[in-house]
Amino acid sequence: MASSALGTILAVLASLIITANVLVAIVLLRLIQKSGYKGHYFVLNLAVADAMVGFTVMGLVMDEFSKPFYPPQIFCVLRMAFVTSSSAASILSLTLVACDRHLAIRKPFHYFQLVTDLRVGVQLVGLWLLAAIIGFLPVFVPVFQKISAQEKCSFFGVFHPTYMLTVSCIGFFPALFLFIYLYCDMLKIASVHVQHIREVEHAGLAGSCPPPHTTSDMKALRTVAILIGCFALSWLPFFIASIVQTVCTECFPYKVIESYLWLLGLCNSLLNPLLYSCWQKDVRLQFSQLAASVKKRVLLHLGNRHRFPGRGTKSLPTVSCLRLQD
User: Fold this and answer.
1) How many angstroms separate the Cα of 217 from the Cα of each of 94, 178, 224?
2) What are phi and psi of 147, to 5 degrees?
3) Cβ-Cβ contacts under 8 Å for 185 (sequence gap 6 or more)
4) Burial group, residue 69, by CB count within 10 angstroms (0-12, 13-18, 19+)
5) Looking at the keywords, is RNA-binding present (predicted)?
6) How confident is the model at residue 321 (pLDDT cuts 50, 70, 90)?
7) What pairs with residue 159 in β-bridges?
8) At what angle do helices 214-247 and 173-203 cross, to 10 degrees?
9) In degrees, to the nearest 5, what angle opens at C-alpha 325 toward C-alphas 320 and 326?
């Protein structure tokens, strides 16, 4: 019963993750075609990574609803490696988004010269290579594998606790500390901008030379701060419990970490597209335009069906005029 409930929750969550991120990806593709802004590529990459998280979780959903079976060790290792690599790509994508916004705020006049197509491509390729190395590390280093005879694939069923400790130390916590540094530095820059505005207004020059980047900087700061907070609240309990589990195997049951704390971490892949669609004005505008376009096509299709009701239906039998005269 508990397994079916967990499978249902995973299925609903994975479906929402895939749907939300696919919609955001479509909107961002339209936005990139119109504006050509390089920073949207990092957000698009985040949506792709989160969508992959949803697709990999679907494989675990199938295990929850399937009949008990005993898959080979390498099957579970590869399946969980795909889950781990997609989650790592999502975390690294958040890092790139934060770095991009930090660069845009720190050097607004040199941003377009520094962020070129070649550099964006190199960063994205390096991101996915690093995510693949993190996820598939137990495949190439058998020491990180754990021999178990479980019916279903799970993190602690195939990965040794030392692997989770390694991933936490070299992956999650450096990314979290980088987030905190970027947030504090952008907060410092924003406070300087606000102080500059007050000085200009006090001098009576606000109407003649208003700073053009202040509003966008504050919005970027708010977006990054919310993303960092949601990311920390989503993944921090899972990684802390994993580290404690390495030191004290009896402190946390494996089921609590895998069924609840990991589920909380997956919610971050659902929050990311919702935050970007709610807080970025250009993304919201593209969403409204896309919805209006779909609504227009649906109404046009329904109007054509009402105008030509005979289309696609079987023709009615005709009656001869001679028979009517009789």
Assistant:
1) 18, 19, 11
2) -80, 120
3) 102, 106
4) exposed
5) no
6) very low
7) 145
8) 160
9) 100
In the predicted structure, residue 188 carries a pLDDT above the cut 70: yes
Rounded CA separation 64/3 (Å): 6
| pLDDT at residue 11 is higher than 80 | yes
Token couple for 55: 């697709």
What pLDDT score does 98 carry? 86
- What's residue 128's pLDDT? 96
User: Which residues are CB-contacts of 76 (< 8 A; sequence separation ≥ 6)?
Assistant: 153, 154, 157, 158
What pLDDT score was predicted for residue 316? 44
Tell whether the model's pLDDT for residue 16 goes beyond 90. Answer: yes
Cα–Cα distance, 230 to 269 (Å, whole number):
10
Comparing 5-19, 59-73, 95-109, 212-226, the range with the smallest average pLDDT is 212-226
Residue 32 corresponds to which tokens in the numbers above? 């990139």
Total-model pTM:
0.81
Nearest CA to 20 among 297, 308, 267? 267
Greater confidence (196 vs 112) lies with 112
**SS3 letters for the chain?**
CHHHHHHHHHHHHHHHHHHHHHHHHHHHHHHHHHHCCCHHHHHHHHHHHHHHHHHHHHHHHHHHHCCCCCCCHHHHHHHHHHHHHHHHHHHHHHHHHHHHHHHHHHCCCCHHHHCCHHHHHHHHHHHHHHHHHHHCHHHHCHHHECCCCCCCCCHHHHECHHHHHHHHHHHHHHHHHHHHHHHHHHHHHHHHHHHHHHHHHHHCCCCCCCCCCHHHHHHHHHHHHHHHHHHHHHHHHHHHHHHHHHHCCCCCCHHHHHHHHHHHHHHHHHHHHHHHHHHCHHHHHHHHHHHHHHHHHHHHHHHHHHHCCCCCCCCCCCCCHHHHHC
Phi, psi at 159, each rounded to 5°: -105, 135
> Both tokens of residue 46?
């985040």
Task: Let me know: does 311 contact 305? Beta carbons within 8 Å.
Answer: yes
Task: Judge whether residue 52 has pLDDT over 90.
Answer: yes
